[in-house]
Amino acid sequence: MQKKNEVETGEWNRLVMDAYHSLEFLVTMHYLRKHLPETGKVLDAGGGPGRYTLELCRAGYDVVLLDIDRAYTTFAEEKIRLEPKHVSSRLIASVVGDIRDLSRFNTNAFDAVLCLGGPLTHISDATERIQATSELVRVAKPDATVCISVMGYLAMLRTVLSRVSQELITPQYWELIKEGKGNNLVGGSLWHFFRASELQQLAESCGLITLEMVGCEGLSTGLPEATNTVAEDSAKWERWVELVLETATEPAIVDMAAHILYIGQAG
Question: How many domains does the chain have?
Answer without folding.
Answer: 1
